[in-house]
Design brief:
four-stranded antiparallel sheet, 5 helices
Length: about 180
């Protein structure tokens, strides 16, 4: 899914036919329209909100510690939260500060972290957590667009749709049970 896909879906939801037409027909000059630029900003905000709301993108990177520090500039893309640090598959204690990630000793470590979302252009691919989809992000973008344009009652409707959809996804994620092991 791209920013354009989410913006087209969101424009259809809020019945902004002119924006939808510009996004579907005009591939080169779509960002010259002020309303389209505002909707793209709303989509980017929706992506950031979804990542902060429990649908983050997690990455595993193998990095080397020198001087018992893994520098933060070694991460690509940059991290927003360090979840776990392991060495040879065993979790190790770590601390994060302005210098980087402090670990017990030098060597190779695997760092699991969430990615800080960045603003995307119109035709860039969107990376969000595995359960987030186009409709869910379009609900958030529609809510943001309605808030910006002063349609507060409609914004509460789209906020409720997003909340219901995200809760359904969270329940689906929690519903898996491990098989029993008989000892």
């Amino acid at each position: 899914m791209t920013v354009r896909d989410i913006a087209i879906t969101s424009a259809a939801m809020v019945q902004a036919e002119s924006i939808e037409r510009i996004l579907t027909e005009n591939t080169d000059g779509a960002l010259t329209d002020a309303d389209v630029r505002m909707l793209v900003r709303c989509v980017n905000l929706a992506i950031k909100e979804a990542c902060a709301d429990g649908f983050p993108v997690c990455c595993d990177r193998e990095l080397r510690a020198n001087g018992k520090i893994i520098p933060l500039d070694a991460f690509d893309p940059p991290p927003s939260l360090i979840r776990r640090v392991t060495r040879s598959g065993v979790p190790v204690r770590f601390a994060v500060d302005t210098d980087g990630i402090a670990v017990p000793r030098d060597g190779k470590y695997v760092v699991t972290y969430t990615v800080a979302p960045t603003d995307k252009n119109l035709d860039e691919a969107v990376t969000v957590g595995v359960l987030a989809d186009t409709d869910m992000l379009a609900y958030l973008a529609a809510r943001n667009f309605c808030l910006v344009t002063g349609r507060y009652d409609e914004a509460t409707v789209w906020d409720g749709r997003y909340a219901a959809e995200s809760e359904k996804k969270r329940i689906t994620r929690r519903a898996a049970l491990r098989p029993r092991v008989w000892a």
